Amino acid sequence: MGSKQLKVGLRVRDLERSRALYLKCGFKEIPNGEQLDLRYLTFGHTWLILSDLSAHPYHAAEREQATKQGPLGRGFVLTIPSKDIDQSYRLWQDEGLPVTAEPMNVGWASVFFGLDPDGYDVMFEHFHE
To answer: Is this structure's pTM higher than 0.70?
Structure first.
């Protein structure tokens, strides 16, 4: 399972908070009782793998040090399709998360940008029909 899907991994400080937030954004969870420091989520055919910043191993000591020193996610943007941009915007506000660009029409879609609990840039987009 999962051998042909695009996967994005995010190291997060609070695994359960991030899991709950992304489930509210429309992701589905793949049950995983074997790896307690990982959460596997999907959106269509794309996987989002959340890993505990402190508990999940790193492939190199210098990458661990750089990641933990932060900031997390500089230059990375996770784009999430939205069926209702206003609803996605309200969710972000209700969660008390920063909005870095208010909802706007960019021609092909309505979008807004925010930061998740770990400071990763997230863009929601709703394509015009």
So the answer is: yes
